[in-house]
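Tokens as discussed.
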């Protein structure tokens, strides 16, 4: 079995992906992190009318002839109340956000004015339009402001609210089944016996799935028994939109996942030129997409971020650009090899340091730092080189 590149593995997965979820309408307040199932088109102008950017006085530019001229204050316009048309030759007291009266074409900030109750002396007046926020400055009526597939952030919700929209169509959350395979696994909190280890992948993957806005369908630990694995897989395919397992996809005798998935659907075992993470399985269980991640926790994390994430985003209907690594200075030397390597690193003002223990079982390497340096296959990294680094936050 030859190795395929990371790029090819991602491309193959994405080529077979499709949006697996329908839509539902939710209140704006429940929409953070959800994915738009429609374009958002504005039915209104924002702001709806010309309004003042300052506390000051609104007037017609040509009515002002110099700093000694007292202009009568003909009305007082506060935010939230509609103004009257401006009387020729007068000024209107106006406040930030208040509508510009018809006939006025400039606002002078109050710091440049001297007023008694009835009239105002104005030091200097800006050009026409000065200190006025025109109607539609932010958004024009009819404009498409957000597109289907966009994952809603805080500012997007603010924008949608500014259009007066209270409920919005979003994709139903993708349900992702997580199955930890391995007879050696015990849950934290349970008693551990010799030969056993705690299940870490489950907690790590479930946190990722939730962070990405999907719904976890949790299946806990499944021991290395074909019958049990088969039952759990079948149940997962009924209850979830996609299935992720960890462990059991290497070629050991106790790795039963392959045979089970083959009997319920189909499976391709891939050797991806990625380190950590080489063994990776992809297929379906009774029509439900199946991703078999390696058991080693660092391999599971790296393949989840690099290989599974783009595929799952597609299944959720998220439009997502490829992640663009940052360029940073390496503070370490490392020889290149046949696989693309994801080194666990930490960035500082001088560049990036590498963690000393890069074993695929050493999960602490991922917690010590803030990202991964990507080393292309066959390429050495020398101290001082400019290298690609992906901070973990870019995987949000
Ligand atoms: P496997 O892919 O099943 O051969 O597992 C590879 C290595 O990862 C073995 O040392 C397993 O004990 C370990 N491993 C598998 N699953 C988990 C898990 N859920 N949590 C922690 N370690 C695991
Ligand atoms: Mg195993």
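Sequence:
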């Amino acid at each position: 079995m030859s190795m395929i590149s990371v790029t090819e593995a991602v491309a193959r997965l994405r080529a077979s992906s499709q949006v697996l979820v329908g839509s539902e309408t939710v209140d704006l307040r429940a929409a953070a992190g959800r994915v738009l199932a429609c374009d958002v088109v504005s039915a209104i102008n924002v702001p709806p009318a010309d309004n003042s950017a300052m506390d000051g006085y609104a007037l017609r530019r040509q009515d002002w002839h110099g700093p000694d001229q007292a202009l009568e204050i003909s009305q007082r316009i506060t935010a939230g109340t509609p103004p009257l048309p401006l009387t020729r030759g007068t000024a209107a007291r106006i406040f930030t956000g208040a509508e510009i009266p018809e006939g006025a074409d400039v606002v002078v900030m109050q710091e440049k004015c001297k007023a008694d109750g009835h009239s105002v002396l104005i030091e200097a007046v800006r050009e026409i339009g000065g200190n006025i926020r025109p109607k539609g400055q932010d958004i024009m009526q009819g404009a498409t402001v957000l597109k289907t597939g966009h994952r809603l952030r805080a500012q997007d919700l603010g924008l949608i609210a500014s259009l007066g929209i209270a409920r919005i169509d979003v994709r139903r959350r993708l349900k992702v089944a997580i199955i930890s395979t391995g007879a050696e696994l015990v849950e934290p909190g349970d008693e551990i016996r010799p030969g056993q280890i705690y299940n870490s992948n489950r907690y790590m993957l479930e946190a990722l799935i939730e962070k990405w806005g999907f719904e976890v369908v949790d299946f806990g630990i499944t021991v290395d028994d074909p019958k049990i694995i088969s039952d759990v897989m079948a149940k997962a395919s009924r209850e979830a939109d996609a299935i992720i397992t960890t462990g059991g996809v290497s070629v050991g005798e106790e790795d039963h996942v392959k045979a089970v998935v083959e009997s319920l659907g189909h499976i391709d075992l891939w050797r991806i030129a990625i380190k950590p993470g080489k063994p990776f399985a992809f297929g379906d269980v009774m029509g439900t997409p199946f991703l078999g991640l390696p058991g080693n926790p660092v391999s599971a994390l790296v393949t989840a971020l690099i290989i599974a994430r783009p595929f799952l985003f597609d299944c959720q209907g998220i439009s997502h650009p490829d992640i663009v690594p940052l360029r940073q200075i390496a503070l370490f030397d490392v020889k290149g090899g046949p696989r693309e390597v994801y080194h666990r690193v930490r960035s500082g003002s001088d560049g990036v340091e590498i963690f000393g223990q890069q074993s695929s079982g050493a999960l602490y390497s991922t917690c010590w730092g803030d990202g991964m340096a990507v080393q292309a296959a066959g390429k050495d990294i020398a101290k001082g080189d400019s290298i690609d680094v992906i901070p973990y936050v870019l995987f949000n």
